[in-house]
Amino acid sequence: MMSATSTLALTHFVTLADSFDKNKVTPGVLGFIVFAVIGGAVWLLMKSMNKHMKKVDFEEQPDGGEAGTTASAAAPATEPKTS
């Protein structure tokens, strides 16, 4: 059930909506603010990603047969425990 004040408020919004030219509606200030916030969030995420990617340090294994022998020599195979 709608009160009298909410009905009065809705009638004011309806008259404001009719006064706009529907062919010239633009996003306005709110659209710019939302776009700027999204752009700032993307910038912060990329900055954080670059920081984390700089921490990654890995060494590629050499190509060929050496990769298998160095891996087996470095970490001897252990048998899994069975319960």
Automatic annotation (TrEMBL):
Region (Disordered): 57-83
Compositionally skewed regions (Low complexity) per UniProt: 68-83
Superkingdom of source: Bacteria
Protein name: RAMP4 family protein
Keyword terms: Membrane, Transmembrane, Transmembrane helix
Entry's transmembrane regions: 29-46
Keyword Transmembrane helix recorded: yes
Lineage of source species: Bacteria, Bacillati, Actinomycetota, Actinomycetes, Kitasatosporales
